[in-house]
Amino acid sequence: MNICEPDVQNYFGEKGIKWQYIVKRTAWWGGYWEQMVQITKIALRKILGRPLISFEELQMILAEIEAITNSRPLTYVYNEPNEPFPLSPSNFLTGRRVNALPNWSGKRNIELFYL
């Protein structure tokens, strides 16, 4: 799949997705986002290798990568059970601690549960 293909461009157009290019590796110009993109790409390469998959399978894999990425700790992780839970991006996105991956129904054209 290539982002220049008409089907991909039509899908992006329907969803209102617009490309914004940012300078790499600078915290004030989007270095943080570039790191998240790199984490996602590395996970995709390790999971997929080179096989062809369906769009639904790609959605499921990306949702799992998103859940794992957003549950990573941002603060110190204590060994004691009575100590506070570490903060993660999911705490800021949902206001709670997220432990489970989103349920996958396997239906076409479903809206993903974004953490």
TrEMBL record:
UniProt-listed InterPro entries: RNaseH-like_sf, RNaseH_sf
Top-level lineage group: Eukaryota
Transmembrane segments: none
One Gene Ontology MF term: nucleic acid binding
The name this protein goes by in its record: Integrase catalytic domain-containing protein
Gene that specifies this protein: AVEN_223462_1
